[in-house]
Amino acid sequence: MPLKISGAFLLLLPALLLLVALFIVPIGWFLSSSIAELGTWAEIWAEAEDVLLSGAVGRSLVNTGAIGLIVTLLTLVLGYPVSYALSRVRGAAFTAILLCIVLPYFTSTIVRTYAWMVLLGRNGLINQILLGLGLVDEPVNLLYNRTGVIIGMTYVLLPYMVLTLYAAMKAVDPRLMQAAEGMGATPAQVFRRVFMPLTLHGVVAGVLITFILAIGFFVTPALMGGPGEIMVAMLIEREVEITQNWPSAALMTVVLLAVTLTLYAVYSRFAEPGEALR
Amino acid sequence: MEGAVALEGVTKRYGAETVVAGVSLAIPPGEFFTLLGPSGSGKTTTLSMLAGFVMADEGRVMLGGQDMTQVPPRGRGLGMVFQNYAIFPHLDVAENVAFPLTVRRAPKAEIAARVAEALEMVKLTGFERRYARQLSGGQQQRVALARAIVGHPRIVLMDEPLGALDKNLRYHMQVEIKEISRRLGTTVIYVTHDQEEALTMSDRIAIMERGRIAQMGPPRDVYEKPETAFVAAFLGEANLLPARRDGDAVAGPGGTRLLAGSGALAAPQGLLFVRPEKVAIAPAGGRTEGANSLPGQVRHASFLGNVVRYQVEVAEGATVLCDAANGAGTPLHAPGDAVRLSWRAEDSRLLAA
């Protein structure tokens, strides 16, 4: 029986109140009071131009977008085959793959990031192997630069991509692919003409959700990145905690929030499998 | 040979279980051939081996005179209608029907002409730009049918194509499928578990039981001259009375002496088969026709409209079903009435128990 709107609202109310009290109100208060400090609209606008187009912030915005894009593409390339395998196997193999993906997430992000730092450091396991095999003459810098940030973030975000893609792939009726094969399609044609179009909405959803999460990242770039790899979230934290320039932090938050909400609006349109086709 | 289909001792095992056990059959071009059987009888696996989705463990699959046993589905050039239609949800009707041609990279003009022709044949002209979700079950069925014939295949496989349709639509589509296949001269291999559908549509039927062909022949032969009790019971209502060979005759229920048709069982013990509609019913002491006659008492009478079905007890624990046409001036018998049943020797057979 479908719930009436009022009934549904009642069920949502506790969660909604919590969200309003602990998220909407504080962030609204933070944004409005910080920005109000600046004075009139014209002054706010001038400050916004100053902050956002200034060297450091501008660079970090570009940096954030670039890292987000690279990481999203990497998770897509690495995640697509994994999701495909996951959607086609059953029983023990399914459980094994799923555990490999999900199990690391029972440990905290910080612990996992430090684990990567041990692996990627100048005397870390990977460099030792590369040196031992004679592939490189001196240790490769895998940490405290963009490479480190990308490796760390790709690792953390991969499951979001894999699980989103998996949901879309699992929904594809395997009989459709068998039918295509029976009608003369080669395996490549089955993939390109049937499987890919039917999972495209999942790809769009996975890309959006991964990108949204990536541009708000803080811990991984803070620990694994170098001074040149400042992302917006780190800059905001620095403005709030160290320089205590709240108006500047607020302006950057607005930008990040606007981008996120816009992408989320697009995402919600693709989240429903049927929607994208309509 | 084009359009001919043959299976030679085809066997398929899944682990320890033999799903299809040495099936052999030969289908001439243009025949409408049905694989009929309950679920688990191996009919769908047999069809899958013809299609190439499942590879035979033993035996040969011959299509159009060529050995196709190891050829993948796309090399077999068959038309196919799938159980759930398998219409691509991201393609419209025209694109769906064109699919077998586009994957073979046929010229655009040819595709357009063939699609138009196929859609006209299934009466779906004007629906080209619709999607599956905008179509009724019957229309989706037609799309699947158009897609199966668009490439003018010599052989079309159909896996329970009408399973999801309601009774009226089913009958309609049966006629239409038969009509189209006759017009195109295609060999059709049709899988169903619905015996009525098999009887209506087929030139020949193979009844499958536990991975083997129990009997094969034209609808009327398999219906009227079943060779096993399974076939007799699967194809419709059947009386199967415990009986025993007694010289030239058969000793039926209560030791009555009956005559059975030719081709009957050699073993001494068996089941006497006769279809309910072949049994005549008359008041006790009335005039009876046919060689076999049994007195009995009506236990139950079901009025089915054009037919009245009687359950008549002919001996302790033995009842005979009798379907009497509700014709002009036919008297009805009530439960408790003493009656006399009769049938011709050639309408009954002694089968293995």
TrEMBL record, chain A:
Residues annotated as domain ABC transmembrane type-1: 61-267
Signal peptide annotation: none
Topology relative to the membrane: Multi-pass membrane protein
Main subcellular location of this protein, as a coarse class: membrane
Pfam families: BPD_transp_1
Subcellular location: Cell membrane
Transmembrane segments: 60-82, 89-107, 148-169, 203-225, 246-267
Keywords: Cell membrane, Membrane, Transmembrane, Transmembrane helix, Transport
Top-level taxon in the UniProt lineage: Bacteria
Family membership: Belongs to the binding-protein-dependent transport system permease family. CysTW subfamily.
Protein name (record): ABC transporter permease
Organism: Muricoccus vinaceus
